[in-house]
Structure formats: C-alpha cells, structure tokens
Amino acid sequence: MSKIKTAFFCQNCGYESAKWNGKCPSCGQWNTFVEERVQKDIPVKQEWKTIDNPLARTQKFVNLSDVEAVAEKRLLTPDNELNRVLGGGIVAGSLVLVGGEPGIGKSTLFLQNALQLKDIRTLYISGEESEQQIKMRADRINVSNDQFYLLTETSTQTIFAEIRKLQPQLVVVDSIQTLQSPFIESAPGSVSQIRETTAELQRFAKESNTPVFLIGHITKDGSIAGPKVLEHMVDTVLQFEGDQHYAYRILRTIKNRFGSTAELGIYEMTGTGLRQVTNPSEILISQREDLLSGVAISATMEGMRPLLVEVQALVTQSVYGTPQRTATGFDLRRLQLLLAVLEKRGGFHFGVKDVFLNIAGGLRVEDPAIDLAVLCALLSSYEDISLPNKVCFSGEVGLSGEIRAVNRIEQRIAEAEKLGFEKIFISRYNKKGIDFTKFNIEVIAVGRVEEVYRQLF
Ligand code: TYD
Ligand code: MG
C-alpha cells in the first residue's frame, strides 16, 4: 500500500509546506498550519477526468490588435442592486464569491435571484440545506420558476455529472466550504479542499461560459474562510453585511474584474425575502415631527452612492470617575478625537460627560465627511438645543478644528437637495470651482468649528 501523502497548509493564506511551522513564512500569521491529506491512493476513474487541463493546449502568442473585441455578454437580473454591484449584470463565465456572516441572508439573496431569473435554467447546489428546507424558503419568497433546479450534493464529480445532464445557464453553490473533491483526501472546508473545488468550478465556468456564484462563510475576523488564494482565483468578491438586529443589508464589491469596487447595494430583509432599497436615504432618516437635541444629518458617500444618514448623540453628566464613551456605527477613536478637538478648540468640557453616539439604521460609516455631523450632534446634545430642521452637514474635521474638504461634494449636495433639505454646511475648501447657484439648496461654507457653532447655537 502506498503511503498517504500529507502536507501542511496555512489556514490563513493557503501556503503549503512539507513540515509544520509555528509562523507562516508567507503571511506571517502564527499557529495557522494544519496537516491535510493531499492525495488519494486510489486511482482516479477515467470518467472523472471531465475537464482537460487548459494549460495543455498549445498556446501561441497573438498580437493584441488581432484579438477580436467581443462585447461582454451580461445577464441582467431583475435585482438592480445586484446588477450594479457586479458592474452591470452577470458576466458570462464569471466566478463570483459572496461572503457574509451566518444568517445574514446569503442563501436568501441567491435563491431569490435565481428564482426571479425566469428564462434562465439555474442549478442551485446546496450542501447545507435539504430540498425541503430550500422549498420552504422558496415558498416564503413566493416566486415560482419552472427553470429552477435543485441539487443537494457535496461531491464535485457528482455535481459535474449532473451539470452535464442539465446544462444549466447559471450555477449557485451554497457553500464552497461544504464541497468535496474526490481527488483530495482532506475534509470539506479545509484549505486544500476549498482550493481544489474552486479550481474545478473555475475551469467549469471558463470552459462552459456559465456564470457560477459561490457562497462562502466568513471567519471571526471578517475575512472569507479559507485561504486568500480563493479571492485570487475568482473574478469578483462580494461581501454581504449588516447588523443582525436591523433589517438593512449591504452588498459590497471587494474585488471585481468587470467593474468598479466602489459599488454597493442596499437591501431590507422582510418576511418575504430581501427587498431592494432604491432610495436608502429616505429610510435612514427617521421621520420625526418635533425637533430633538443631539440629532444631526450627514451627507455621506457609501462607495459611489450618496447617502444621508442620521447621527444621534447623547451627552450626559458623568456619574463615575472615568467618563464613558460609546460609539455604534462610528469609530470610537475618531469620536475621542472629535471630543478632544471640541475640548481644546471650543472650550467645551466633555471630560466630565458621558458620550454616546449612534448611527441610525445599524449602518457603519467610514466616510470622514460624517465628522461635521457628529460634531454638531455632540454640540446639540451638550447644549440641549435641537438643530434646525432641514439642515445637513458634510465635512471632515481636522485636529486644529478646521473643516476640511471632502470628495464628490456636488453629488452630496444634489442628494440633500433631492431629499428636500434647505441648508447644507460644507467646507470652505470645497467651494473652489463649483457653481453652487445651480442647486436649489443653501450651501453654507465654513472654515472652522467655531463658525459652525456660531451659526447654529
Ligand atoms: P439565510 O439566507 O439563511 O442566511 P445565510 O445563508 O447568510 O446564513 O437567511 C437568514 C435569515 O433571514 C434567517 O434568520 C431568516 C431570515 N429570513 C427572513 O427574514 N425573511 C425571509 O423571507 C427569509 C427567506 C429569511
Ligand atoms: Mg445559508
């Protein structure tokens, strides 16, 4: 009997080594090496070798000008958010990886999209749920489609055999961590399995020109489980994220060979599947009648999309020696920095106050342009004076209290105008070369924190 061949794989980056290492020489992570079997000692059946090695064909060089330009064929789904995130529809033969935390709605999103594509023969391969469970989910979504086929299977060779019979036009794999290639001995979900099964699906996608969606799990630190190599192998990486306790979900592009990575789609989880949110700003701003202190609206950008979000702050007298600072949806260190700016430049005594900050809707905002709204929400709660209605803010705050310019200011102003705002505070440095008279909204350019304070309180 031949000896079983094993190798050690870094579970973080996929680095292969003959011996165990404490620290991965490739990615520098500690304690990530796991021994995996790499070869089966049974001979591979001939009919399993479904796909020839693409490298084996004799490839000759060509002059780029001789290559015929073929218009990229894209399949448009009824889901505009997904189309946009993919760069304008599904590209034929593309391999798309979708990551997200458990329970966020990955299976729902792709089941729903596959069901809505009426004239497309889709194969939904699930290694996680039974046919009945998927049926129950499909009933909830309540879209019927007689071109939708299910396969609950994890072995790639059985999957390819079924694919050859059905000839689907779209394949969804839920999830890549459950697949198993008979060529590799290690357990499903291990680095070598994920790498091999993805490679097999990649070959299938490229050769048959069929788009394949892979659903992938996410590890505790937020990266897609399995090696980084997985991200290199696929054409597009999407991330589905959101707060479990809120209904809003964001689909983000992390990598895209066929489009921009600054795109983003917004959904709402409802009782009957995911709903596209076409005008997110309207929901993110709470519809309130009376004015409350500590609330400010910011004109932020999420990727390429302008988004108006509500910042809520609560500043109270501290009861303990060390004042508390809590931020949800906003970087805590950034909050501390803004408080320090207010303390030093404005003479406000936040040192004796507890400060709580929240971005409404469970969003996480990284755009520095939200600074000015955070600062105004803090001041409003501190003074217990509400900000005037129909006013929003867009500006970054620097350490010396200056209001700095932000990108895409015209888009932000246009969005605020569209939502019926009457005034927007922006940085003085954003004024250059832009004609603000075309907007039906008053643009107030400010240079320092003190100026904003004087205008508002
Ligand atoms: P699911 O797609 O199973 O998540 P994932 O595949 O990312 O693990 O969806 C999980 C949640 O979505 C689950 O808690 C139930 C909820 N859900 C709804 O609220 N409405 C629906 O119509 C469906 C199908 C699911
Ligand atoms: Mg799932």
Automatic annotation (TrEMBL):
Keyword annotations: ATP-binding, DNA damage, DNA repair, DNA-binding, Hydrolase, Metal-binding, Nucleotide-binding, Stress response, Zinc, Zinc-finger
Domain (RecA family profile): residue spans on this chain: 71-218
Residues bound to ATP: G100, E101, P102, G103, I104, G105, K106, S107
Superkingdom of origin: Bacteria
Pfam family of the protein (one): Zn_ribbon_LapB
InterPro entries: AAA+_ATPase, DNA_repair_RadA, P-loop_NTPase, RecA_ATP-bd, Ribosomal_Su5_D2-typ_SF, Ribsml_uS5_D2-typ_fold_subgr, Rubredoxin_2
Residue ranges of the region described as Lon-protease-like: 354-457
Any single GO CC term annotated in Swiss-Prot or TrEMBL for this entry: cytosol
GO biological process: recombinational repair
UniProt motif (RadA KNRFG motif) ranges: 255-259
GO molecular function: ATP binding; ATP-dependent DNA damage sensor activity; damaged DNA binding; hydrolase activity; zinc ion binding
Similarity comment text for this entry: Belongs to the RecA family. RadA subfamily.
Domain remarks: The middle region has homology to RecA with ATPase motifs including the RadA KNRFG motif, while the C-terminus is homologous to Lon protease.
Described purpose of this protein according to its UniProt entry: DNA-dependent ATPase involved in processing of recombination intermediates, plays a role in repairing DNA breaks. Stimulates the branch migration of RecA-mediated strand transfer reactions, allowing the 3' invading strand to extend heteroduplex DNA faster. Binds ssDNA in the presence of ADP but not other nucleotides, has ATPase activity that is stimulated by ssDNA and various branched DNA structures, but inhibited by SSB. Does not have RecA's homology-searching function. Plays a role in repairing double-strand DNA breaks, probably involving stabilizing or processing branched DNA or blocked replication forks.
UniProt-recorded name of the protein: DNA repair protein RadA
Organism name: Chitinophaga jiangningensis
Primary gene name: radA
